[in-house]
Amino acid sequence: MKKTNHYLSEQFITEWLSPDVGFVFRSGQVLDDFSSQYQHIEVMETAAFGRVFRLDGYLMTSEADEWFYHENLNHIPAITHPDPRTALIIGGGDGGSARQLLKYPGMERVVVCELDAGVVAIAEEYFEKVHQGAFHDPRLELVIADGLHYVAQCQQPFDLIVLDLTDPQGYAEPLYGREFFTECARLIGDHGLLSLHVGSPQFHPERCRHLFSELKAVFRVVRPVLIPITLYGGFWAMACASQLRDPKRLDADMVEQRLQQRGIAGLHYYNGDTHQAALAVPNFVRELLS
């Protein structure tokens, strides 16, 4: 797979949050650097985050802190659901979301619909610490396809849908719109849940306002999920949406009870207290989304 394009040659990696603000850390050895059919893919070693990869210059995941993102994106909806059996992940080619959902002993089927086979290939080769063998679990079905078309054509219901996507631009942009959210709502019905990452309320306020507005036009319950993600530059927003199920109805003890009953272990971040904390909304975010 290795093709030396020398696209990544800087000593420092910069993740720009806005035209004026960025997050910088030192790069290390470049392990892979090539262009797929859809995007430019880079894999590198770093002292701060272990192995990381970028798509078209944007950081996606790292060995050292992927759990800030993957645990909250997946366990908040999965624990809120009383008995999740089926899940659809749109994107998620690194396998991190699949790994978290496959922890559930009642989970019978997880479909990962990833646009770019190149992302799955680099995950298999370089990011075993992230997916931990999820791609080889017999309950997992890998589909290389456009998630927009897959969802539009799908007739099978799911308990959970997780949008583990790049930012809303390029190929991913249509997957952040009201029409696509409506198709997701069709698949999860009244009792399922949708989870997705949104952006930084501090540095992407208009994006956050717009996406929550689009979600509220489709779902009766839309909860902001607010967590720190160092690799993305700090304070970050996700969303958990449903017609009937509300993650805020679960207190810390109920979350802990469900984690224990379902045998969910080995988590670095998520627990009963952080479930409630992630759903607490600061005043400036309330004002932004009002």
Q: What's the quick description here?
A:
With 290 residues, the protein is an alpha/beta fold.
Structure report:
The protein folds into two domains: 12-62, Roll (Spermidine Synthase, Chain: A, domain 2), CATH 2.30.140; 66-289, Vaccinia Virus protein VP39 (Rossmann fold), CATH 3.40.50. A seven-stranded mixed beta sheet has the order 9-8-7-10-11-13-12, with helices on both faces. Strands 3-4-5-6 form a four-stranded antiparallel beta sheet, covered by helices on one side. The protein has a two-stranded antiparallel ribbon with strand order 1-2. The longest helix has 15 residues, at 66-80. The protein contains ten helices and 13 strands. It has helices at 66-80, 96-101, 117-126, 128-131, 147-153, 178-188, 205-216, 252-261, 272-278, 283-289; strands at residues 12-16, 22-26, 30-35, 40-46, 50-55, 58-62, 86-91, 109-114, 140-144, 160-164, 193-199, 221-229, 234-242. It is 31% helix and 28% strand. The chain is an alpha/beta fold.
Strand order of the largest sheet: 9-8-7-10-11-13-12
Indicate the proportion of strand residues.
Answer: 25-35%
Average per-residue pLDDT, rounded, comes to 95
The CATH class of the largest domain turns out to be: Alpha Beta
What CATH architecture of the largest domain would you give? 3-Layer(aba) Sandwich
**How many angstroms separate the termini?**
48 Å
Helix content: 25-40%
- Overall geometry comes to globular
Structural classification: alpha/beta
Q: How many alpha or pi helices?
A: 10
